[in-house]
Amino acid sequence: MIDEMTMTTVVAAAPEACHAVVSDIERYPEWATDIESATVLERDDEGRVARASFRVAALGRSATYTLAYDHSAAPHRIAWRLVEGDIIKHLDGMYEFNPGTEPDRTEVRYQLSLELAVPMPGFVKRRAERRIAHTALADFAARLEAGGGAPAEFLGAGQ
Which of 106, 92, 112 is nearest to 150 (CA)? Predict the structure, then answer.
């Protein structure tokens, strides 16, 4: 069964800074807790990541998967879908960046649709899903606060 989850947070950065951090796939292992490696396999005509493979460690297991990316709504959204995976059957999601009510504030919505190929008790699976979403947003916000990956002009520096 495919489970879906959505979480939101507000960060002190412009949507463009948010998109810059999330679209820098190669640097995910520097800030995304469970990602051990991220390899860009293909780029689009604009140089953005079109396809990437990942190795992750979570719940005492290791998994590998490949995602295809959609940048058509950049810089307000980046979406992905699973191309292939070993223990993951379905993994589609997106980050959406909506300008906040204050300058240089962005509401970040993280949405994930997940199905594992391995059986897991429902309560364990729900706990894992919440952890994935919470960690994705918390790690992302921490990366933005540290200024990692986003050009200074997007973070409001020098204003």
Answer: 106
- How many angstroms separate the CA atoms of 117 and 65, rounded? 12
Give CA–CA dist 99/105, Å, rounded: 6
pLDDT per residue over 89-138, tens digit each?
888 999 999 998 888 899 999 998 888 777 766 666 666 666 677 778 88
Cα–Cα separations (whole angstroms), residue 47 to 74, 117, 153: 13, 33, 20
Residue 5 has which token pair?
């989850």
Measured in whole angstroms, the distance separating CA 69 from the mean position of its chain's CA atoms is: 11
CA distances from 68 to 54, 91, 120, 126, 155 (A): 11, 10, 26, 25, 27
For residue 130, give the nearest of 144, 78, 122 by alpha carbon: 122
